[in-house]
Write a structure and sequence with these properties.
Blueprint: E1 6-7, E2 11-13, E3 24-29, E4 32-38, E5 45-51, H1 60-66, H2 68-71, E6 82-86, E7 91-95, H3 102-108, E8 110-111, H4 113-132, E9 147-149, E10 155-157, H5 171-179, H6 201-217, H7 227-235, H8 253-263, H9 274-287, E11 294-296, E12 302-304, E13 311-312, H10 332-337, H11 341-347, H12 363-369, H13 373-381, H14 396-402, H15 406-414, H16 429-436, H17 439-447, H18 462-468, H19 472-479, H20 484-487, H21 497-503, H22 507-515, H23 530-537, H24 540-548, H25 563-570, H26 573-581, H27 596-603, H28 606-614, H29 629-636, H30 639-647, H31 663-669, H32 674-683, H33 698-704, H34 708-716, H35 731-737, H36 741-748
Parallel strand pairs: 2-6
Antiparallel strand pairs: 1-2, 3-4, 4-5, 5-7, 6-7, 8-13, 9-10, 11-12
Helix pairs in contact: 4-6, 4-9, 6-8, 8-9, 11-13, 12-13, 12-14, 13-15, 14-15, 14-16, 15-17, 16-17, 16-18, 17-19, 18-19, 18-21, 19-22, 21-22, 21-23, 23-24, 23-25, 24-26, 25-26, 25-27, 26-28, 27-28, 27-29, 29-30, 29-31, 30-32, 31-32, 31-33, 32-34, 33-34, 33-35, 35-36
Length: 749
């Protein structure tokens, strides 16, 4: 049971053998790699960050071990804790974040405004927690690639504590540490001069300002600039361009922009503390609060719950931007840039129409992007090719649709623009309009011959995008032009529009799709139905509707998970009750042999455990290696679940199959809050002298792990000190060998 070993600072020391052999590399940096690994016993994914000690001149890994007691204290909703070490791999072990980094998300997805506000607030919350520690824990490495995202795209700040300012360190060496990690855009101006002052909390505040800009614009700052150029510009007060913040934004965004500019103020004394930004971002986030589903509690009262994603999982369009040109009066692009449209129309000549600019953009592309319908009409009148494309396949029509320029859209279509011409990813104008919820443009395009069920390269139809983003009016328009078969079309991962509406808790759209013939039992490539997704995300009302419409209540996905498994794993108690009340099997098993009760117990969902037991689930069910829900709850230190299981007649003396461990063995070896669990087990007549396959008793394990209170409790309840394990050792011998001096003294009495 090496999995249960502890190391300094209450970190577990994982062995390589604790993980399955197939380590998947998910990222690589100058100082090491990050792998996705899976624990053999619990089948749980973890992230393993391995350090190349030859490249880490300041030995980051050694410092993490030395400061484990400090890092172990950082357990907060919006920070990613280091849960253990793997000394054999010179690595740290962390929770696996399924949605990767914010940096990657911003580059590949279009994030809706409510989600942007939420991410900024959650980042502020995480940083405020780090700075509230005594002394403040400085991050000094805050950037979008170190902000990770969980299943619901909630923020987890990572990599804090890896960069340190040490007494006597030169600014030059400190700068080398920062720039080696590609942090130049996030470094405040006061760091560049060779002054001896160490960085303080305002360093992180400046970095946060840049992060806000990235979230608002979904761009990278100082693109194409060298390190030297960035240093010079920042030192002289230049910051990323405000013009890149989208024009169509909520009015509350102005307050966020104000916070952002305060955070990156040239004078570090004028920057706000995170304790201030948290209050403001909280208020703004609540104004644009994402209207989530209702999760039913025991009393059936609605409660606000997490709302997933709110992003569209496809590329963003790169719109034409005016190139840097000399401000000559006769330069036609300069005239467009200055919005001097009268002079532009007088100056532009027929031969200019066919000029090709960078990225294969034409004059018509730039004229459409200028948003002046008169100039567009004039350029078209001079013979511009209405269906010309950029290097990435964008037509003038697509650019007009993205900008919501309804007059120009109609103008282009009247001049022969092809409503069905796609870009390099086969996204048509209708895809972009559906994604943004522009029902007026959707109607115009459909009336001009746009095909409603055209798939792009990944199989997404405009209907998929409208359903995922909650645009009901667009959904209705598209359904009016689609056949019943098209309503059930799948994209590349096999998801139908109903899958997406259900995953996002969009009840009215789900009802609409079902009324148009959508199949509630259709499966995607992982064999998940819409009911699986709604149950997993906690969308009670959608679950009810899918069951009413004939959804497969006991269908298993490719991992053997039923909707009940997923609801129990996430602690959606009301959904568990609803599924069981509608006849769901209370004892399904996934491919690893775990029941819903196992998953609820392992995740610490007390109310769900109670609900499952009351509706027929077995508290003594055996899963992988014969582990019961009680074993899992003890292993995770979930003392309240341990108490509930025992009250429901869970057997405290059932031993698992591989090594004969009882729940008491597991609790005595667990690093997590084991003492209350031990007391619960003893009070329910757990055998304090039970032996496992190695003849070790709970006392042997408690002595090995140095848990004085547990050892004392075992002795007071009849634990025999003289019993020998298979190596011939008593508990005292184990404590002496492990150098647990307090335990040695206790056992020698």
């Amino acid at each position: 049971m090496d999995l249960l070993d502890e190391s300094p600072g209450h970190f577990r020391n994982f062995k390589k053998d604790d993980f399955e052999a197939d380590w998947i590399k998910v990222s690589e940096c100058k100082f090491g790699q990050v792998y996705q690994v899976k624990l053999k016993l619990l089948r749980m994914k973890c992230a393993l960050k391995s350090f190349d000690t030859a490249l880490c001149s300041n030995n980051i890994y050694r410092r993490i071990i030395d400061e484990a007691s400090i890092i172990a204290q950082v357990k907060f909703k919006y920070t990613l804790p280091i849960c253990g070490l793997c000394r054999e791999a010179t690595a740290i072990v962390m929770e696996y974040m399924s949605n990767g980094s914010l940096n990657n998300l911003l580059a590949s997805h279009t994030v809706m405004w409510p989600k942007k506000f939420q991410m900024i607030h959650e980042t502020s919350m995480g940083m405020n927690y780090l700075h509230s520690m005594k002394p403040p824990l400085l991050h000094l490495n805050l950037k979008t690639s170190n902000i990770l995202l969980d299943d619901h795209l909630h923020v987890k700040i990572s990599d804090f504590g890896l960069i340190h300012w040490e007494e006597g360190m030169s600014k030059q060496l400190f700068m080398q540490h920062l720039t080696a990690r590609g942090n130049i855009s996030y470094i405040p101006p006061e760091t560049f001069p060779q002054c001896p002052d160490p960085p303080g909390t305002t360093f992180d505040v400046y970095s946060f300002g840049i992060v806000i800009w990235e979230i608002l614009t979904q761009r990278k700052p100082y693109t194409g600039c060298s390190v030297t150029t960035v240093i010079l510009q920042v030192s002289h007060g230049k910051r990323p361009s405000m013009e890149m913040i989208p024009e169509k934004k909520p009015i509350e965004c102005d307050q966020l922009i104000s916070i952002m500019t305060q955070c990156w103020d040239q004078n570090h004394t004028k920057r706000p503390q995170f304790s201030e930004t948290v209050r403001i971002t909280e208020a703004l986030s609540e104004i644009l609060w994402i209207p989530g589903p209702i999760t039913m509690s025991n009393s059936d009262n609605g409660a606000k719950s997490d709302y997933p994603w709110l992003v569209s999982p496809i590329h963003k369009i790169a719109l034409p931007e005016m190139p840097d040109l000399p401000p000559a009066e006769d330069n036609i692009l300069s005239l467009l840039s200055k919005k001097d449209f009268g002079s532009f129309r007088k100056t532009v000549k027929r031969e200019d129409i066919h000029t090709q600019f960078s990225g294969e953009k034409s004059l018509l592309h730039y004229t459409v992007a200028s948003k002046d319908a008169g100039s567009v009409k004039h350029v078209l009148g001079l013979g511009a090719e209405v269906n010309c494309t950029t290097a990435t396949g964008y037509t003038p029509l697509i650019i007009a649709v993205v900008h919501r320029l309804h007059d120009i859209i109609s103008l282009l279509l009247d001049h022969g623009a092809d409503a069905n011409q796609g870009d390099e990813d086969q996204w048509t104008a209708l895809h972009f309009a559906a994604q943004s919820g522009d029902d007026r443009t959707v109607r115009i395009l459909l009336d001009k011959g746009a095909v409603a069920d055209t798939p792009e390269n990944a199989g997404w139809m405009p209907l998929h995008l409208a359903c995922q983003n909650g645009h009901e009016r667009v959904v209705r328009l598209l359904l009016s032009r689609l056949s019943e078969e098209a309503v059930g079309e799948r994209e590349a991962k096999g998801r139908t529009p109903l899958h997406l509406a259900s995953a996002y808790g969009l009840l009215d759209i789900a009802k609409l799709l079902l009324s148009q013939g959508a199949d509630p039992s259709a499966t995607d490539c992982s064999l998940s139905t819409a009911l699986h997704l709604a149950a997993q995300e906690g969308h009670n009302r959608v679950v009810r509707q899918l069951l009413k419409s004939g959804g497969n209540i006991d269908g298993a996905d490719s991992r053997g998970y039923t909707p009940l498994h997923l609801a129990a794993q996430k602690g959606h108690t009301g959904i568990c009750r609803q599924l069981l009340s509608n006849g769901a099997n209370p004892e399904p098993r996934n491919l690893q042999g775990w029941s819903p009760m196992h998953l609820a117990a392992q995740r610490g969902h007390k109310a769900t455990v109670v609900q499952l037991e009351s509706l027929g689930a077995c508290v003594n069910a055996r899963g992988q290696n014969g582990w019961t829900p009680l074993h899992l709850a003890c292993h995770q230190g979930e003392q309240d679940v341990v108490a509930e299981l025992l009250a429901a007649k869970a057997d405290p003396n059932m031993s698992e199959e591989s090594e004969g461990w009882t729940p008491l063995h597991v609790a005595c070896a667990s690093a997590s809050a084991s003492f209350p669990s031990v007391l619960h087990l003893i009070s329910h007549h757990a055998d304090v002298n039970a032996v496992n396959s190695g003849n070790a008793t709970p006392l042997h394990l408690a002595a090995q792990h140095g848990n004085v209170t547990v050892v004392n409790a075992l002795l007071l309840n009849g634990a025999v000190k003289t019993l020998l394990d298979s190596s011939g050792s008593t508990a005292l011998n184990v404590a002496q060998r492990c150098e647990k001096s307090e335990i040695v003294q206790l056992l020698q009495k």
